[in-house]
Amino acid sequence: MSLALRHEPGRFGLTPDRGGWVPVADLLRGMRMTRAELDAVVAGNDKQRFAVDLGPDGVERIRASQGHSIPVDLGLVPQAPPEHLYHGTGREAAESIRATGLHRGGRHHVHLSSDVETARRVGSRRGGPVVVLTVDAAAMARDGHLFYCSANGVWLTDAVPVGYLTG
Ligand code: HQG
């Protein structure tokens, strides 16, 4: 479902709207899955990656709450971040990040966690030793950097310059 809703909707015959939404019925057809399977994924997903709601036309729709590589406007409103946010990554990446700052790569934003434990889990996805960097989000916000919080609690920002990173 992440592939269909974040990265390659065309492979499943889907055309998300500007906000990244597709009709639930279209996703079921495109992925050849049942409604019960979809409900189980939406409810059981460890990160609550998918949101289902009623569109303005009364048609039920679904989208990924973050993590897209296709262009989408999630309609997120800038929010004041907590004082510190965290980024978990591998040791080599951490070296490079300490030198050049955090970059968003293929995603729309840099992804930050509100607690160390979650950041550690994100960083451990690739195997190997994990480094958790601390972001002085309050200072970034004071300096005019914008932060957004996705529907599933992931903090997003465009980039984190080196001066705001420790760890
Ligand atoms: C690294 C998962 C070298 C960065 C998770 C990361 C998250 C640099 C990788 C979400 C760098 C990008 C995002 C620099 C950044 N030099 N490496 N200057 N700047 N990096 O997957 O944060 O399962 O795009 O440390 O739970 O790991 O998709 O980002 O290792 O919320 O829902 O470049 O993905 O969520 O990798 O993970 P990613 P991420 P989902």
Automatic annotation (TrEMBL):
**UniProt KW keywords:** NAD, Transferase
Q: Which family does it belong to?
A: Belongs to the KptA/TPT1 family.
Alphabetical list of InterPro entries matching this protein: Ptrans_KptA/Tpt1 (IPR002745), RNA_2'-PTrans_C (IPR042081), RNA_2'-PTrans_KptA (IPR022928), RNA_2'-PTrans_N (IPR042080)
Which organism is this protein's natural source? Micromonospora echinospora (Micromonospora purpurea)
Q: What does this protein do?
A: Removes the 2'-phosphate from RNA via an intermediate in which the phosphate is ADP-ribosylated by NAD followed by a presumed transesterification to release the RNA and generate ADP-ribose 1''-2''-cyclic phosphate (APPR>P). May function as an ADP-ribosylase.
Entries under PANTHER family matching the protein: PUTATIVE PHOSPHOTRANSFERASE, TRNA 2'-PHOSPHOTRANSFERASE 1
Instruction: Identify this protein by name.
Output: Probable RNA 2'-phosphotransferase
Under Pfam families, the record lists: PTS_2-RNA
Q: Which branch of life, at top level?
A: Bacteria
One Gene Ontology term from the biological process aspect of the record: tRNA splicing, via endonucleolytic cleavage and ligation
Answer whether the UniProt record assigns the keyword RNA-binding to this protein: no
- Which gene codes for it? kptA
EC number(s) per UniProt?
Answer: 2.7.1.-
Q: Which Gene Ontology molecular function entries are recorded, alphabetically?
A: NAD+ poly-ADP-ribosyltransferase activity; tRNA 2'-phosphotransferase activity
